[in-house]
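$ run holo --ligand "adenosine-5'-diphosphate" --emit tokens
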Amino acid sequence: MSNKVRLQAVRDVEAYVPPEVSFTDTEAPGQVFGENVFNQVVMQKRLPKSVYKSVIATIEHGAKLDPLVADAVASAMKDWALEKGATHYAHVFYPLTGLTAEKHDSFFEPVGDGTALAEFAGKTLTQGEPDASSFPNGGLRNTFEARGYTGWDVTSPAYVLENPNGNTLCIPTVFVSMTGEALDHKTPLLRSQQAMGAHAERILRLFGHTDPEHVVSYCGPEQEYFLVDRHFFLARPDLLNAGRTLFGSKPPKGQEFDDHYFGAIPERVLGFMMDTERELFKLGIPAKTRHNEVAPGQFEIAPMFEKANLAADHQQLLMTTFKSIAKKHGMECLFHEKPFQGVNGSGKHVNFSLGNSEVGSVFVPGDTPHENAQFLVFCAAVIRAVHTYAGLLRASVASATNDHRLGANEAPPAIISIFLGDQLADVFEQIAKGPATSSKGKGKMVIGVDTLPVLPTDPGDRNRTSPFAFTGNRFEFRAPGSMQTVAGPMTTINTIMADSLDYIATNLEAAVAEGTDFDQAVQTILTEIINEHGAVVFNGDGYADAWPIEAEKRGLANLKTTLDALPELITEPAMELFEKYHVFNHREMHSRYEIGLEQYALTIGVEARLTLELGTTAVLPAAIRHQTELAVNVGALKAAGVEADTTLLEAVSAPLADLRAGLVTLKSALEAEGHDDALAEAEHAREALLPAMASVRQASDTLEDLVADDLWPLPTYQEMLFIL
Ligand code: ADP
Ligand code: MG
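-- output --
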């Protein structure tokens, strides 16, 4: 690394000509949508009727998969994939690293006479055995049985992934140990979905839907990301290896100008967006909005919501697609939660609702008091769930990288609260006092003991500071980080909702059995819930200094870092909850806790080593050269009998001394790594490595503003953020 690399990067960016993107008629988004997906239309065409019906029963109604259909599906799937140019197939799974893993195999097997035959049996479709012993398992796999197994997830369609070197048939799968314990993100999501659905259906039955359609959770993730030119990216070993800049002084022109937000999208970025959208459309991913985000170089994409399991798979696929297409356009796509210090970070808002094709979203207020009672019951379930299990929600988004974002004044605070909007908050306030009688604003509702309000469909105000907000027809969980899979938070949401819905259904069913008036019973439980759990409702400014103090008075936890949040996973009530709804057993919970700690320590460990290396080999030499030049200058002046001004020399010498000291401290902190216990190692990362890294960075950032530009080795924030 030298300043030459940096200056060359700037010149290369200037000279770069991005590829042109244009669509022919046959490639128009409407034409290509779902083109590479083995979806229901394709299945209906290609599968025997009985097989098709059986598969649909599993996908749509959650019926158990009939093992006899596997061979027929495999054969049709193989023919379809071969027509699409696939040469290989892969079981795709989602290990606990948060990334996507694939095990590729060839369709073709040699048959002895020198030719090869395309083979793909039902057994191959339904089960795989990847050599995946290096994925984190938190003690769930003993060394003698280190294998993990993949299993076909029928509810997420297979697809063909195009690649210049040959296409691959991708089959979404779960990844479990030999004993059936979850080693991935998909398995618990599917389990939690089942639990939530069953209890939501009990509520619907109480409200007169005698045979409700299968209830699922829907998820619409909003993905924020940065784009930087690849020349700069490659000249920044910290971005390359840690996904974020470990050094970098804030540019003179930052986001305070706000001219980027919803401003014009650079031509080159538009080309990238068109290209990604076409690829996403082919894969059946309904990409929708696009606009610039708050920070320079930052953008957002929000696909249309889908069933949570599918949305989670699509979200992972979206990230991989973005990465590879950005490369094609000479850019790097950054999904890190905080690639640039002092610049707005990236989140992944998880919009979610529950529902089915019959009732739509249960979070839409209806036209009749009866429908509204149902709506309020589901909202009350959310209030109770979020209040009771706030710690679990916080833990579901805990990571070393997301810690940089939560609680900084850009993302919601680490305190989990709910924003209901004025109208709905008002209704619940009245419910707390007993039967509601009026509503704020335009509503004109009259409520007696036996009837509930006619609610306005107005979504209420937007409150960007709330981690959990009602937004008209759904709730939006804003704490998840841009890099995280939505499967984690959705699993938690489903499970805590299962618990609340179970609680309410049990209560109402008992009341009905005792002959209590149903409306009365609903009124009573709503009042009870809002009185017990209303403390979690907060419509104010989550960034205000007064909020943490107020939150503490209300008994709401403020779990600032990952290490404060992770122990929530292994509390007795948490483990009981997940076991009761068959989402995780105790061993699985412990394994997730352990893996969380390991990942935390690993992430920070890598960053610390990079900080030491770059600080020593890039920043320090540049600063010393600069200091030497100044010293030589002072010496020369003195020798010539001219009065020498030493302020510049002194100004650079102080942070240079800090840098040297910081590097020494960091080095010894790194030498003290290697605790046997995962918690001790993670604590060491937080208590020793992070502060040491911060002081190295501070000294370096001060130096960056002092050292001659032609000596500075690393591309600057100004260059990375404003040149696209
Ligand atoms: P905003 O920025 O105002 O929050 P966006 O349009 O950027 O809105 O994103 C909204 C996201 O919410 C989209 O992904 C959308 O599909 C999703 N969404 C809308 N309705 C629902 C719903 N009923 N359930 C789940 N997600 C939804
Ligand atoms: Mg949003």
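-- notes --
DSSP finds 23 helices and 18 strands in the chain.
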